[in-house]
Write a structure and sequence with these properties.
FAD/NAD(P)-binding domain; 311 residues; five-stranded parallel sheet; seven-stranded mixed sheet; alpha/beta; 19 strands; 28% strand; 7 helices; 2 domains
């Protein structure tokens, strides 16, 4: 297998990875970045980004990520296509296998592999991606001011998303598979007391419909005990809030992760339990999952990596 030695390897190409590459490039660390399965990260699955500072009119998500990528290249980052398929973090240099065919040995490593939103697995979720289907109320809620939306989920995240959307939308339906909410008591109370939110217990979404975007959801109550349990509900937006899966599997044998798989870092730093290995962005962030917070953590990871390598 071909082997290459690098000073700093960055895995992942969302706001965290690209920002880390910008800072590391400016610090003359000659970073090598592998972009992963989705160059540009999760943000490229949305359309217009309106909450990234410095873009008062909003900016196309793909354009924003291309600008970040070019900025990293301008400062000397070596950005490549490829997916990390195996990791050995037992000793320095750290060994990362790319596409099962190339071995990279790195003196320092920044993991910015992100987290993927969980979906129901409906074909319509792909069909209407960016056209009414979203997994981030904070990102896309503004587009649904005075409109009718549905949120799928029954945990804290779903209740938070529904409450947030209720501050913007005309009406929010919370589609809950079980006959109860799994959320904490305070979140349940907020949902139940909000007159704009209607909870649909024991409901499942079977599909979506609409000509130029989502216009409604096909619902089934109590898994179809009768023909009348199937009905259509007109909505303008369909939000998934059933969790995220951090892309940390290949690192779990070495790094401390929480029960959901997020990499655990030291306090407010991107340092992991292995010196020289840093985690940035959504792979280490179960709370905020925003482009701006990911970018900030990428900055911190690069500064920490520079300090580590200088030692």
């Amino acid at each position: 297998m071909e082997t290459e030695k690098v000073r700093l390897l960055i895995i992942g190409s969302g706001p965290a990875g690209y920002t880390a590459a910008i800072y590391a490039g400016r610090a003359n660390l000659s970073p090598v970045l592998y972009s992963g399965l989705q160059p540009g990260g999760q943000l490229t699955t949305t359309t217009i980004v309106e909450n990234f500072p410095g873009h008062p009119q909003g900016i196309d998500a793909n354009q924003l990520m291309e600008d970040m990528r070019q900025q990293a290249v301008n400062f000397g980052a070596d950005i490549r296509n490829g997916v990390a398929t195996k990791a050995d973090l037992s000793a320095r240099p750290f060994k990362i296998t790319i596409d099962d065919e190339k071995l990279i040995e790195a003196d320092a490593l920044i993991i910015a592999t992100g987290a993927a939103a969980r979906y129901l697995g409906l074909e319509d979720e792909k069909k209407y991606a960016g056209m009414g289907v979203s997994a981030c109320a904070t990102c896309d809620g503004f587009f649904y001011r005075k409109k009718v939306v549905a949120v799928v989920g029954g945990g804290d995240t779903a209740c938070e998303e529904a409450t947030y959307l209720a501050s913007l939308a005309k009406k929010v339906y919370l589609i809950v598979r079980k006959p109860f909410l799994r959320a904490s008591k305070i979140m349940q109370e907020r949902v139940m007391l909000n007159e704009k939110i209607e909870v649909l217990f024991e409901h499942n979404a079977e599909g979506l419909y609409g000509d130029n975007g989502v216009e409604g959801v096909h619902l089934v109550k109590r898994l179809g005990e009768s023909d009348e349990s199937h009905y259509d509900l007109p909505i303008d937006g369909f939000f998934l809030a059933i969790g995220h899966k951090p892309s940390s599997d290949i690192f779990k044998d070495y790094l401390e992760v929480d029960k959901a798989g997020y990499i655990v870092t030291e306090g407010a730093t991107p340092r992991t339990n292995i010196p020289g290995v840093f985690a940035a962005g959504d792979v280490a962030d179960p709370h905020y999952r925003q482009a701006i917070t990911a970018a900030a953590s990428g900055c911190k990871a690069a500064i920490e990596a520079e300090r580590f390598l200088m030692k």
